[in-house]
Automatic annotation (TrEMBL), chain A:
Pfam families linked: FAD_binding_5
Matching InterPro entries: CO_DH_flav_C, CO_DH_flav_C_dom_sf, Diverse_Substr_Oxidored, FAD-bd_PCMH, FAD-bd_PCMH-like_sf, FAD-bd_PCMH_sub1, FAD-bd_PCMH_sub2, Mopterin_DH_FAD-bd
Domain FAD-binding PCMH-type per the UniProt entry, residue ranges: 1-167
Name of the molecule in the record: Xanthine dehydrogenase family protein subunit M
Top-level taxonomy: Bacteria, Pseudomonadati, Pseudomonadota, Alphaproteobacteria, Rhodobacterales
Keywords from the UniProt entry: FAD, Flavoprotein, Oxidoreductase
PANTHER family per record: XANTHINE DEHYDROGENASE SUBUNIT C-RELATED
Source organism superkingdom: Bacteria
GO molecular function, one term: FAD binding
UniProtKB/TrEMBL annotation, chain B:
Organism: Szabonella alba
Keywords: Molybdenum, Oxidoreductase
Molecular functions per Gene Ontology: iron ion binding; oxidoreductase activity
One matching Pfam family: MoCoBD_2
Highest taxon, organism lineage: Bacteria
InterPro entries found in the cross-reference section: Ald_Oxase/Xan_DH_a/b, Ald_Oxase/Xan_DH_a/b_sf, Ald_Oxase/xanthine_DH-like, AldOxase/xan_DH_MoCoBD1, AldOxase/xan_DH_MoCoBD2, AldOxase/xan_DH_Mopterin-bd_sf
Domain Aldehyde oxidase/xanthine dehydrogenase a/b hammerhead: 21-139
Protein name: Xanthine dehydrogenase family protein molybdopterin-binding subunit
Amino acid sequence: MYDFELVKPASLAEAVKAMGDDGAQALAGGQTLVPTMKQRLASPERLVSLTGIAELQGVSAAEGRVTIGAATCHADVAAKAAAHYPGLAALAGQIGDPAVRNRGTIGGSLANNDPSACYPAAALGSGATIVTNTRDIAADDYFQGMFATALEEGEIITAVRFPVPQAAGYVKFAQPASRFALVGVFVARFADGVRVAVTGASNNGVFRWAEAEAALSGDFSADAVTGLTVPADDMIADLHGSAEYRAHLVGVMTARAVRAAG
Amino acid sequence: MPKDGGIGASTKRREDMRFLTGKGRYTDDINIRGQVHAHFLRSDVAHGRINGIDLSAAEAMPGVLRILTAADFAAVGGIPCGWQVTDRHGQVMQEPKHPVLADGKVRHVGDPIAMIIAETYEQARDAAEAVLVDITELTPVLDMKAALAEGAVKVHDDLTSNLCYDWGFVEENKAAVDAAFAKAAHVTTLELVNNRLVANPMEPRVAVGDFESHSDQYTLYTTSQNPHVIRLLMGAFVLGIPEHKLRVVAPDVGGGFGSKIYHYAEEAAVTFAARLVGRPVKWTSSRSEAFISDAHGRDHVTKIELALDDENNFTALRTDTYANMGAYLSTFAPSIPTWLHGTLMAGNYKTPLIYVNVKAVFTNTVPVDAYRGAGRPEATFQLERLVDKAARELGVDPVDLRRQNFITPDMFPYQTPVAVVYDTGNYQATMDKLLEISDHAGFEARRAESATRGKLRGFGIAHYIEACGIAPSNLVGQLGARAGLYESATVRVNATGSISVYTGSHSHGQGHETSFAQVVAEMIGIDANQIDIVHGDTSNTPMGMGTYGSRSLAVGGSAIVKATNKIINKAKKIAAHLLEASEADIELKDGKFAVAGTDKSVDWAGVTLAAYVPHNYPLESLEPGLEETAFYDPSNFTYPSGAYGCEVEVDPDTGKVQVLSFAAADDFGNIVNPMIVEGQVQGGLAQGIGQALLENCAYDGNGQLLSGSFMDYAMPRADDLPMFTVDHSCITPCTHNPLGVKGCGEAGAIGSPPAVVNAVIDALQRAGHAHVTHIDMPVTPARVWAAMNG
Ligand SMILES: Cc1cc2nc3c(=O)[nH]c(=O)nc-3n(C[C@H](O)[C@H](O)[C@H](O)COP(=O)(O)OP(=O)(O)OC[C@H]3O[C@@H](n4cnc5c(N)ncnc54)[C@H](O)[C@@H]3O)c2cc1C
């Protein structure tokens, strides 16, 4: 690891200011950033820690929406969102292991946008709004491919606002080593239709599966997606599975996510 | 009921208190005053020519004391290989140079190029980034068969080819084997891969070198399974330091599984550098570094064939194996695919004719050497997959086919056609026990229940034999070993009766401090808490060969028994003097020496005190003191065996395999501590199931490691494994060591992979996927799905 300076702002305003300096980078749970720094693949001069900022913490529910502070760790979401948005809480409870869940944050996960991460599926599948220090970004506009997002340099995610669906389910097929999603599918049924978001599978990162959404909007049952397939062309192929295998799993996990949503 | 602390008792491991409360003293816990840190700049290409190394910028970096490259090691030797195999034509193997630091060429990703020594670890790493290495990349040699093709790029320019050796065993049998195949009623053929593995002990490797100029004394603290072996190899062959000036200490070591047997370049480098810079030099491997610098395991590609007559008797076996050596020969690498593999190809069966061919090949990958089981898992996997396949082809029960061909109890000692002589065993008994403890009879009902949930259930069996208790020195000497494989012990009885036992074995998780004390406690009849087991330091233990090959109790324990017997014999003489009786009449029982048939006795401490305060003592005929050393060289290997059964469920939608239950019925001979044995078996099973389903050390076409971290290299975790049913009540004691023990450390990792794969194939075949006759390990969901849909 290279030398760096650590600042611990007490408020969002201080954090925004600290992020203005050259070489500054936000630090949330550090579950991705710190290992990257240890491998000397990242060399921020200044880390701006977000986890001590009260306004970035916590889970609240109002008017059919659940809002989660960006620096809220996965374990807190699993525990505190359960009453308001059980499908989301269940997803948070499946991320990594207890140590990761008590450190890693929703903001860090969405900012990083790992193509195999779980939260992007929930955000896109719910049609969430990514709230930053400067603006609101709809999930449909936010995810821009592997590790790419709509965030500007120095922009800080402050919260994520989820509309609560009538039913939702997330099923992930774990990559055997990392246990990130080899394929993970989040389905959410709203009054005006169903959203299906797929993570882990595509070279373009998390994506919505339009055919499944159409089929499920007509009939929200596992049978409705039986036989539907996604093309394997843009799927990830690696040590853990071919593109065809991932494409196949998208169908299987979608049906299972529908069953999990109940 | 065995007495707690004596032989047969499940005495709790005394070392665990220290390990579980963070009081272990590992090599990385050793920090010597004035210590500096080393970092190795490693090759990031698989194969390349070094045109030049520019150190000027790096040498000027803060904190840098010295940067060493191959040129600095010109006057010292290379890393030696401890075994020389002679091939089928009588030629000795090709043995490449193995410089401490890459000299002229880099030969695998991870090959060390420069050693940067700085005040802090981070300074050393900073400076490493400023070292400019000019490398011309060369085509990497990766595929073993392609490596042997005419005109293939060579890993070592000064060798004639990439072939290390072409070994035939038993060469004289080849014609007879071929003839038996020609007239076989049925031949079963299987091509398979034994996947390359990374050992991944919990503690990565660490080495600290120290040099005292006033006494010319070197000390190396290292994460080793055998400190004396390291002292010999590094002292005599690399650095030219006589033994009395070199102390090697392997303190608490956090697991080895074979990967810490070998003498590694980093050990020599820190020891050498400590003198050069005049400061102690420490190197601690990162986990990423371990993946590309610890010796890997397995990596065989095999074609195996079984000939049967029209009554399903095995008539001949023939194998053709390519064994990956990696870029250099690690310490015992040549012996693994040959003498630890070919000699086991008879398995538990009376197959009369066997021929094994092994071509060992150099590639641009990390060197491959022993990993838990070493050669024997490769043999067992081939054979037990093959027998299963034969049973399916013939439409007979795999259990029955095995039973029909087992060596029967009346045939022991049994001379196999592949050189070894099995002393004892009872394979029908372990098979019976397995079927009982795995509730084989209830399988069909369980399968039907799985089917109601849409899951495919299968049962797989494997029966293994291994040769361990390594090894008779004269025999292995004939086979090419450049070392003896005896073991040593010194039993030092103190004046008040407490005992320190110095063993040449080394414990890195095996629980020797507990089980070895149980042996001595039982023999003398005193409390085990009066006995300490000391190991790991060449300055106080007799020359020993260390721990691997399930040898510690069978060989190291036997040395302790021998030394303890010497102690008891001398103590009886002292007791006879004290009791004014004849030595022949003295009996030792429960820590008391008594004159037979009388009530006259003297207790243990009375004798030991007399030995050190010899006022009333036969000084004219007996030396004072009570300390004895013994060396034990076994007359044969030991042959543990057992039957393993695995039940799996396959999810047909995803191909995911869940191991539902695993049962092991082992014959380890006599058991000193059943709890420790069970723990050893469980750990071995976890590793074997890991190999079968999860672990895959894979390279891409450029020789880059694809699974270079735990994000891609899947280690087994608790929730990947079922609760194990472990039984070791089938006992045929070893006939040639004093405890009648066989060794249990590797069995779990040897017998389990074929049982798991057989279970998966069974599940698929029962579900109608008749075309799926084999899936290579690791049997990942993606591979199962591809096989089902292929
Ligand atoms: C062993 C392990 C297993 C894991 N398993 C899973 C899994 O199964 N599923 C899964 O989805 N994830 C998994 N993760 C990832 C983990 O859950 C975290 O989500 C992830 O590491 C990022 O969150 P963090 O809070 O740690 O972010 P950090 O590592 O602190 O930061 C990551 C990136 O986001 C930026 N950043 C952080 N917060 C903000 C913010 N508020 N605004 C703008 N930028 C920000 C940082 O600058 C950095 O670039 C795993 C991680 C580990 C180590």
